[in-house]
Each structure stands twice: as structure tokens, then as C-alpha cells.
Amino acid sequence: MPSPFPPSTSAPGRGHVQLTLRPPNEPVFSALSYCYPLKLVVSASHTLPADPSSSSASNPSLSIGHDTAKPIIPPQYPSAVPLLFLLTYGGGLVSGDHISLSLSLAPSTRLTIATQGSTKIFRPATPSSAALTRQDLTAKIAANAALCLMPDPCQPFAESRYAQKQIFEIDMSGSLCMLDWVSEGRGARGEKWAFESWRGRNEIWDVPSCDGVLPPDEEDVTASDGADEGGAQLAQQQQQQQQQPKRRKRLLLRDNLILSNPTLHTRVDGHAIFGTLILTGPLLSPLARFFIDEFNTMPRLGARDFTHPTPTIPQSTLNNPKSTTTTESASTNNESEEASAEQRREQWRTKRHAREKEEGILWTATRVKGGIVVVKFAARSVEAGRLWVRGMVREEGSLERAFGPGALIALK
């Protein structure tokens, strides 16, 4: 009997998400589709505070622009950050599954993507099967938009084969926080990196999709007003810009991780999880700078003994001034507060160093092309790695303020 329903146009495992702003600044999903075994669930959005228009952090395009001759449009400020859960039926992917998700973030939007648990990669039904489990993600992040991709770790089972590819096309004023980590498998069952192969690739492309110039319709209207002197100047600028060569799409980062050696479990020095954290864009610059600064304070050969930090004493205390004016008193209080905050940070740093040594946490941070900060880390247990990332992110604090508590779900 023929089905009364029209045939589906969706391919298995395909999904598409498009986030836009509805006037004045409400984020809405203008497109959201998925097909088995992929499932997308929209959760409650995180409401952002009122537009801090006076803050340069909320208007990154005002301080970015490589061409000062281009007129810059002040970006809108979204009223909320939607939270989207990326799920799979059964909690994992079986051999031969192929997930392909495309994301499109309109200008000035923000989106948090999380999972409700580790993505389990099941082994093939027959050992002789050459079927590969795949997961692909393509994300386009427009001007002043931001994406926070913080899933739980990938958990490949013994004898499984898995490959993933994540490509991010980002405007020069867009932002990205991406966590990509893989565990040893089912440690409770004695699995220690017993999968057959695990391959991951992350690419970040600089795409000149929206450099902050006026939209075409506004350009035409302004330029056609011959009586307006400002319009004539703008038309002249636009004519000069058209004569200049356009920026091309360029690759900023390609990060590959290949785990396929049959003796891998003997070469990981007891570590149970490896991870990569990628931070780029003006919205994530405070967190990126925090990781770089903390890495620079790590003990080095020939440096001072970091296990006994020297407390910071404000200069006013050393000189013991007799403050006689309100200005001098306020200055002393500010110095005391700064010294107190620095002492608290130093105490936190000392405790963190001790935990890193105890739990076998290794990490490094570096800044690469385009100002992208890449953090690599490893830990001897999944929980230790999770708590380390959470401690670093919460100590700095800007990620939760920008995306809400949903950004930390995978770290709880």
C-alpha cells in the first residue's frame, strides 16, 4: 500500500540550523531541521543584560576594521543566547552512521551548542567490517556573531572506527569557542585506547562575508542623493573600495589529531583524555588572553620557586603614607583592592599547580595565525580534565557572562 505522506526530502543524519535576529534584537531559529539518527533540541535561552553600548567589548566591530576608510555599522546586541542540544538516538553512533550538520549564524547572533552526555562510538557488528562512523560540522559565523561549541567528550568503544571534520568560516569580527576532546573509551570495562582509529580535523577560515560596510540598498540610496555632501563623499569612498581587490577566503588554522596506532595505550603515559580548546574573536579575547597569561606563569627552569609565591604588597603600605585627602584615601583603597585580588589569584594559581601535578594534567597554550589561541591538554582521568577546564573558565568568568550557564554544562 503506498504511503499517504509525501516522500521525505531529508537525508539520514543531515541537519541544518539557521539563527537570525528578529527586530529589534530577538534571536530566532529561521530554519531548524534534522533527520535520524541526528536530533536537535532547543532549550531555554539565556537572557543577556541590557545593551552596554558604552562598552567596547559589546561592540567589537568598533575596534576591529582593517580598513579605516570603510564606514562601520554599530552591531546590534542580542537579547538572549539560545541553547541547542545536539543528540543522537540511543546516545551514540553505530558503525556506518554519518552525521552532517550545517550552522549559519546571522550578524550579531550568539549560539551555545551542548550535549547531554558523551558521544559513544560503537564498534562494527563484525570485526571484518570496514564501515566508518563519521560526523561533519560546517559553521558560518557572520559579523559580530559568536558560537560556543562545548560538547561532552567523544567516547570511542573498543574496535571502533571514527572520523570527524569541523569547518568554521568566520567573519573577521566573529567569535568562536570550540572544545574538542576524546577519552580512552570505557575505562570501567578496562578499555584503554582500544579503538581501531580516531581521526579529527578542525579548520578555521577567515571569510570576508561582511566587513562592516553599509548594505547595498543603503549604499545606493545614500549615493544617489547628490545634494547631500556626506552622501557624495560616501559614494566616492565606495567607488575607491570597488577598485581595490577584495579579500579572499584564507585558512587560519588546520588542527589534525590522528589516533590509530595499535600500541597507543602504551604511549599515552597513563592519560585518559586528550582535548583541544580553540578561542578566537573579540568576544573570546579575554578568555584567550587569560590562558596565555596563565601558561606564561607556569614554572620554568631557572625561574623562581612558584610553590612559595611572594605576596604582593602595595607601595602605599611600604611607604606608610598619612592620607589627608579623599583622593589619597581612594587611591590607597584601590591599591589595597588590587593587591587583595592579586593575592587571591596567586593563591588560586598555587592550588591549581598542585592539582595539576597530582592529577597528571599537562597543557600548553599558544597564539597562532589570525590571533587564534589553541589550548592542548591531557589528564589521567576524564573527571580531572573536566574539572581543570571548568576551573580555568570559571576563574576568568567571561565565557559564562557572554553565553550563559549553558556553556558550562559539559564541564559539570
Question: Uncertain spans, ≥5 residues at pLDDT below 50?
Answer: 54-73, 210-227
Strand order of the largest sheet: 3-4-7-10-13-16-18-17
Order of helices and strands: EEEEEEEEEEEEEEHHEEHHHEEHH
Q: Summarize the biggest pleated sheet.
A: 8 strands, mixed
Cα radius of gyration in angstroms: 25 Å
Query: Mean pLDDT, rounded to whole units?
Result: 83
Question: Gap between N and C termini, in Å?
Answer: 50 Å
- Give the overall shape, derived from the CA principal axes: globular
Beta percentage is 25-35%
Proportion in helices: 10-25%
Could you say which structural class the secondary elements and strand pairing correspond to?
Answer: alpha/beta
Instruction: Determine the number of helices (DSSP H or I, runs of at least 4 residues).
Output: 7
Total count of strands: 18
Textual characterization of the structure:
The structure is a single chain. 32% of the residues are buried. Mean pLDDT is 83; it is low at 54-73 and 210-227. A hairpin with a 5-residue loop joins strand 17 and strand 18. The protein is built from 7 helices and 18 strands. The chain is globular. It has 412 residues and is of the alpha/beta class.
